[in-house]
Design brief:
about 0% strand; DNA binding; elongated; Homeodomain-like_sf; 2 domains; Arc Repressor Mutant, subunit A
Amino acid sequence: MKMDDQHKRAYRQVARAAATQDTENAIVIAFRELLNDRFYDEITLDDVAAAANTTRQTVIRRFGAKASLLAAFTQRIGDEIETLRASSPTDDVAGAVAVLVADYEATGDMVMRLLALEGRIPDIEPTLEIGRAGHRRWVETTFGPGLKSFGRAERADRLAQILVATDVWSWFLLRRTQKKSVAETKRLMTEMISRLLQD
């Protein structure tokens, strides 16, 4: 095979791989946008294909079943949230809460719709478990240093309370049920956590 032919073949392979990646990205983005407005069980692969400007067969070829598409989405959004929350200061409760609330403002309603299906749709269980584990790691990393002065049992209790104070349900109750503003929500969450960090 001539060198030019080898280069052309390599270029075509790279181009195909890039096109495949672009298609997969478009499908995951489309799926995410649908999740922003609908419940998981209301979304079909045809809906995803239409939103991604592709075909149902392409979605199936790239991801298989909807559960696999959800898994790909979970990995992507999990990485995004981890990156966002990694910027949280460990010595500034208000700063950490600001990062948390920004996350919930972007993803909270979608997460609440997934939680509403817990126990009914097995597909979503891994997504919820991954989210809970990630949130616990963030709470331990961000607020754990402020609990070092407490004994083991007291530290565990306060950590459990901080997990509740920072949970998406707390954000939802403040923002959606009580109609608090973003600023008020941050203030109230900050005050709850600050009290739990005090001796």
